[in-house]
Specification:
The chain is of the alpha+beta class. It has two domains: about 90 residues, Glutaredoxin; about 110 residues, Glutathione S-transferase Yfyf (Class Pi), Chain A, domain 2 (Up-down Bundle). The chain is about 55% helix and about 5% strand. Strands 2-1-3-4 form a four-stranded mixed beta sheet, covered by helices on one side. Helix 4 runs antiparallel to helix 6. The longest helix is centred in the middle third of the chain and has 29 residues. It is globular. The termini are far apart.
């Protein structure tokens, strides 16, 4: 480790997670602004780095890691400082943090929102995977049902999922809540002020700008 960090990928709800963690940890990095499904992930150069041909991808010296949730966890575990910490201390709290991360990725992202993206027509991929309004409807219903667990957690007065401490679990959840709003799914009442708090963080603001395609960032 110790060489400049390089992050490949911009423009999605998942790539912003890695940008956000880098900014929260105040880490200098080089951004390689390639987009999904643009052909840029299929070049020989990128395929040599990531045979999955997916973004985001973090390169740290000789080490490479994909999957947004894994990237933000890796950064937090290896680059946290007393001033910038994104993981709680203590085995029990770390287990609870992991539980939230896995829950959001599995139940809200992959099982719900990405299913809607694959089979929907609103900013979706139905032209690739097939349009299915019934599947999109059921996925939205499942998202709202699973969101009740977030609602319970946030309704007890806590600032973030882990209480007063902002963690990578909040990074992942914020992107899913934003994604859901964009898809018209709707989110629970307690999530609205939570979303305002997380998106007001300076690191989020910088990450959102870094994650925009250049044409949009300049418009």
């Amino acid at each position: 480790m110790g060489e400049q960090l390089v992050l490949w990928g911009i423009g999605t709800s998942r790539t912003i997670r890695a940008h956000w963690a880098l900014h929260e940890l105040d880490l200098p990095y080089e951004s390689r602004p390639i987009l999904p499904r643009s052909g840029e992930t299929k070049t020989p150069e990128y395929t040599a780095l990531n045979a999955r041909q997916k973004i985001p991808l973090l390169v740290d010296g000789d080490f490479r890691i994909g999957e947004s949730a894994a990237i933000v966890a890796y950064l937090s575990q290896n680059y946290s400082t007393p001033e910038h910490v994104l993981i709680p201390e203590g085995k029990s709290l770390q287990a609870r943090w992991l539980e939230w991360c896995f829950f959001v990725v599995a139940e809200l992202d992959s099982t719900s929102l990405y299913v809607m993206r694959r089979h929907g027509t609103i900013n979706g991929l139905a032209h690739i995977y097939g349009e299915s309004p019934a599947v999109v409807t059921k996925a939205g219903e499942y998202f709202r049902d699973q969101l009740r667990h977030v609602d319970v957690a946030l309704s007890d007065g806590r600032t973030y999922l882990m209480g007063d401490q902002f963690t990578t679990a909040d990074i992942i959840l914020t992107t899913c809540l934003t994604w859901a709003i964009d898809y018209g799914v709707g989110i629970c009442d307690s999530a609205m002020p939570y979303l305002e708090r997380t998106k007001a963080r300076p690191a989020y603001q910088r990450a959102a700008l870094a994650n925009k395609p250049k044409a949009l960032a300049c418009s």
